[in-house]
Write a structure and sequence with these properties.
Elements: H1 3-18, H2 27-41, E1 46-52, E2 58-63, H3 66-78, H4 82-89, E3 93-95, H5 106-114, E4 119-127, E5 130-139, H6 147-169, H7 173-201, H8 205-219, H9 223-231
Antiparallel strand pairs: 1-2, 1-5, 3-4, 4-5
Helix pairs in contact: 1-2, 1-6, 3-5, 6-7, 7-8, 7-9, 8-9
Length: 237
């Protein structure tokens, strides 16, 4: 990818993030759009985003594939891995090769490698002195993030964090986490709806998500609202 193309994608992404500073926006759709855009900017095979709930427990909020979703869930369940470390330390965690972290995170490294990944880079979502989650980049090839890439990734993460908590929640970090709890609860309903769609249509979870997201966009509705209708049996997809 040329620097010009990357710059254009970056500017478009920052513009999208700025659009969240309004009274009404779909946080779930925003997060999925964000990881999709980040994957394009960094030529990453997959990008995921995890957020802390009101108890400080990390939850997978968005991922560009189901295989990454499973790796993130495995990592969060174990409470151990680069994405968890980025959240807990507030620092960027980068590994150009999974071989370099086998000793530190053997279970994660093994699972990620078995899924086809070769490198991982985790960037904290920071709000003042606290961290509310991490933005995580996975690649099927080896290679470090250089200084410029780290700066770009952290800039996106920092601006996205402001967009997530918005002005009305920036005053206190605890309020920001309460604000995010709604999004985390919505994620549970969405996963349930994906399961319903996958079962009824006989499709994979990724296809179920595409169907759900398309309906929300076509109706100009929140993804979580459509998902609730599916779970309650009021909407059939």
């Amino acid at each position: 990818m040329t620097d010009t193309t990357r710059t254009q994608l970056l500017l478009e992404t920052l513009t999208v993030v700025a659009d969240t500073l309004v009274d009404d926006f779909d946080i779930v759709e925003f997060l999925h759009d964000l990881v999709d855009r980040c994957a394009a900017i960094f030529d990453a095979v997959d990008v995921g985003l995890v957020l802390a709930d009101s108890h400080g427990e990390l939850v997978v909020m968005a991922s560009t594939s189901e295989r990454l979703h499973l790796i993130e869930v495995l990592q969060l369940s174990a409470g151990d891995g680069p994405c968890v470390d980025a959240y807990e330390s507030g620092d960027v965690v980068t590994s150009g090769s999974l071989e370099n972290i086998v000793m530190r995170w053997p279970a994660f490294a093994s699972a990620a490698r078995d899924s086809g990944y070769q490198s991982v880079h985790a960037v904290p979502l920071r709000l003042r002195r606290s961290t509310i989650g991490s933005l995580n980049f996975f690649s099927d090839s080896t290679g470090e993030f250089d200084v410029k890439e780290v700066l770009i990734a952290q800039t996106i993460a920092d601006v996205a964090t402001i967009g997530l908590v918005q002005e009305r929640a920036v005053k206190e970090v605890s309020s920001a986490r309460d604000q995010l709890q709604h999004a985390l609860d919505a994620r549970v309903v969405i996963e349930q709806a994906k399961g319903v769609i996958a079962h009824s249509r006989g499709v994979e979870m990724e296809e179920a998500w595409t169907i759900l997201r398309h309906r929300a966009r076509s109706r100009q509705a929140r993804v979580a609202d459509i998902a609730r209708g599916v779970v309650d049996g009021l909407i059939v997809l």
